[in-house]
Design a protein that fits this description.
single chain; 210 residues; alpha+beta; Lambda Exonuclease, Chain A; five-stranded mixed β-sheet; 8 helices; 42% helix
Length: 210
């Protein structure tokens, strides 16, 4: 029984139910090199401390040249420089009979306009408007804030130096909630987890799955 559905859970299930089964039902973990994630972790940590007003000068000296370049890009970003509201916090909401949620990088504001920030040191999702992270975070923030003038999700892509902005509207809320609930229902009512062989290449379970 899953208490709360995360964006990664829904993404994994849609990508391959068998992978979802190994990861979230059987809790099978496979060794992975931490190297690809270190850069992102450093940038996220610095961003969080800096937004909270913590002195990060010593931490900045530990960055390599590429990390320094990404960090400077983030510090100069127009959305990162909006008024701080909250950062690195868990947020959740109940949609129909299912709880969904995740951890938001930052929530900033400009008057009554609120922006969920997500820092990317790699690539952003394909079709970001309908990525489960976008949908779940916007629905949860909508419930959390209750009153606001506008709400948007902003992918800050430090790799290509662009911002991808997805605006939240009452119409899109209904679409998001229906799509999220549909996948949560499929997972909850399923006891069969077929593999999706189209996504086997590079899967951490491929050596013993088939």
């Amino acid at each position: 029984m899953i208490d709360i559905f995360s964006p990664n859970m829904l993404k994994t299930y849609v990508s391959c139910p068998k992978k979802f089964y190994y990861t979230y039902i059987e809790n099978i973990s496979a060794p992975q090199s931490p190297a690809p994630f270190e850069k992102g972790k450093k940038i996220h940590a610095l961003a969080n401390y800096n937004l909270q007003g913590i002195n990060i000068e010593r931490l900045e000296t530990q960055l390599n040249e590429k990390e320094k370049e990404l960090w400077e890009l983030l510090k100069e970003n127009e959305f990162y420089n909006k008024e701080y509201f909250k950062s690195e916090f868990q947020i959740s909401a109940k949609i129909e009979n299912y709880w969904v949620g995740g951890r938001i990088d930052a929530l900033v504001k400009d008057g009554g306009e609120y922006y969920i920030l997500d820092y990317k040191t790699g690539s952003i999702p394909q079709n970001p408007e309908y990525d489960f992270q976008t949908m779940i975070y916007l629905v949860c923030a909508d419930r959390y804030l209750k009153q606001y003038d506008s709400l948007a999700f902003v992918y800050i892509n430090l790799k290509d130096k662009k911002n991808y902005i997805i605006k939240f509207t009452p119409e899109i809320r209904t679409i998001y909630e229906n799509k999220i609930a549909q996948i949560c229902k499929q997972i909850s009512n399923s006891n069969i987890y077929p593999e999706n062989q189209e996504n086997c290449a590079g899967c951490i379970y491929s050596k013993f799955c088939l």
